[in-house]
Amino acid sequence: MEVAFKSLFAGGEIANSGKADADPPSPRAPLRPRKFPRPAEDSASPLVLDRVVISAPLGTRLVRRSASVGALRAANAASARPPVLVIDDMSSESDVTVATLDDAGFVAVAESEGDAALKHARHRLTRLVVSELYVPCAEGVCVVTVLKSDRQRLPRLQVLVHTRHTTAEDTDWALAAGCDALVPKGMSAAVLIREVRRLEGFAA
Amino acid sequence: MSTSGSQPLRTVGAGMTFLDETGMLWTVTERNAEDVPGSRGPRCLIFASPEAVRRVWTYPAGWRDLLTPSLIALSWSR
Known about the structure:
The complex is a heterodimer. By secondary structure, chain A is α/β, with parallel strands linked by helices. Chain A contains 7 helices and 6 strands, in the order H-E-H-E-H-E-H-E-H-E-H-E-H. Chain A starts with a helix and ends with a helix. Chain B has 1 helix and 5 strands. Chain B has a 4-stranded antiparallel sheet with strand order 1-2-3-4, with helices on one face. Chain B is globular and about 35 Å long. The two termini of chain B are 21 Å apart. Chains A and B meet through helix 1, strand 1, helix 5, helix 6 and strand 6 of A and strand 3, strand 4, strand 5 and helix 1 of B. Strand 1 of chain A pairs antiparallel with strand 5 of chain B.
């Protein structure tokens, strides 16, 4: 018997409803009213919006006091769409992945070594990773496992394994390593982008 | 917590199959996920097709009762 999807979530029992599946606290807290500090009159903060002197005589050029609205929008856009870290020990393959992501509007950067990738992810608080499967690092035999284990520093991290290793055992290995999705190499760019966009929604 | 990722996740109960709107065959299995790095619960659903694999952490206990459109929607969730 069909049970409506929404009603199951609305009133029924939810699997994994314990504490472990609760989202980590988000620093952006979208439902909580936020108070922004009013900038000082002479503030040089780059986040001060444009200010227009309405009473200026005709012909007077409008004065821009600080960073442009465009810069502000760019900063907001950057926070809304997380950059993608591509981890692949084959540079020729990571180049293709980065180009595919770039063409789809993502900002993607590549690392070819596990340790460098870990450093990058922790320094930039990366939220979206596209990684080859068996990339080792000093902290473990697979950088995906180490990244997914680091929930304290990377609580919202989503990892898509994009791999040339496509046996059932490889897939089981990737799932046990903690990946959130997997796309075998050789699939179309559209498939890769579709799956990255799915994870992007969870990482934002 | 798993340190190697080499142990396959144990399947819980029966799986299901369905065809999505493009005719792609998907299999859905519930897996034990307690030892998965970054685990968000004791179990998860794995949606697998020849094109992609998706892991879903939040799902109704009666997911096997869902018809195809609901399973497709569920595969897009977290």
